[in-house]
Design a protein that fits this description.
Number of strands: 10
Shape: globular
Structural class: alpha+beta
Strand order of the largest sheet: 5-4-1-3-2-6
Number of helices: 8
């Protein structure tokens, strides 16, 4: 979850981006189809795909927040709050990894910024990740940063680019050598805090008409109950089906202590035996 903001909770984009959204709504067959493009608007508006942004996008595209979250977590190119302002994505698949091209780029990034893959600088300005193929296999290593795509990005070219970003941010490489990086946590454990889809509690689920996402946990009438644990041969010892005298318990068919089968439903006190 992203940290709570002290600013008012927003429910729509700025007028400029709302105008762009309406252009998409006219261009695509339905609002749902424009979801990925609207998520790009959210990135521009918030700097990353925050919980607040996902709620706005869900409302604009007429889908659930869960659907938006599924899209954001499936496509790794969307920028999330745990990423740095400048997000380095270094291709680590075979063609870039050959001849240690990937390692060379990662070593240079670490030398300047003090971060390894999966880490962010302490000030949140830079982060680094290994990613899958970036589709320029003949020009390794391939690196993306700030929506820019770079080929053969190592050596002097990468150093110059890193120095340019540091200068733009008023930072120095020495500053990052003195500070420990932060490990990024890319997991998204829950939906935004006030959502309670689909109204589940520990004892059951709400009625369909009561699945108001703004209800607090435990509110609303329940129509289903959580069943108890299922007894199976893997969870219940075989001996539980036989009482101490070797006859089946609970009037169920079983085997006695001698290995003979008996069925209480058949003729005889203990049922027929098969030797």
């Amino acid at each position: 979850m992203s940290p709570q903001s002290t600013t008012a909770h927003r429910t729509e984009f700025s007028p400029e981006r709302m105008a762009k959204f309406h252009e998409y709504a006219e261009e695509y067959p339905n609002k749902r189809s424009a979801l990925m493009m609207v998520l790009r608007l959210a990135e521009e508006e918030f700097g990353s795909i925050t919980d607040e942004a996902m709620e706005i996008v869900a409302g604009l595209c007429n889908v659930s927040v869960a659907h938006v979250q599924g899209m954001v977590t499936f496509y790794t190119h969307f920028k999330r709050p745990f990423h740095g302002k400048h997000r380095f994505m270094v291709c680590a698949t075979l063609m870039c990894a050959l001849e240690k091209n990937t390692d060379a780029a990662l070593d240079q990034i670490k030398a300047r910024l003090g971060i390894a893959p999966g880490q962010r600088t302490h000030d949140g300005l830079f982060s680094c990740e290994k990613v899958e193929c970036l589709a320029d296999c003949d020009k390794p290593p391939v690196v993306q940063c700030d929506n820019e795509h770079f080929c053969s990005m190592k050596g002097a070219v990468l150093d110059q680019y890193l120095d340019k970003l540091l200068k733009e941010e008023g930072k120095s490489a020495a500053e990052y050598k003195a500070k420990s990086p932060v490990d990024m946590d890319p997991r998204v454990p829950t939906l935004p805090a006030h959502y309670n889809f689909p109204g589940e509690t520990e004892t059951g689920a709400r009625k369909t008409e009561n699945k108001d996402p703004y209800l607090k946990a435990g509110e609303g009438a329940l129509t289903t109950n959580v069943p108890g644990p299922l007894a199976t041969p893997f969870t219940v010892p075989v001996a539980d089906g036989v009482n101490a005298k070797g006859a089946p318990s609970n009037n169920r068919p079983g085997h006695d202590s001698a290995g003979n089968f008996s069925n209480p439903a058949s003729n005889g006190k203990h049922g027929a035996k098969h030797g």
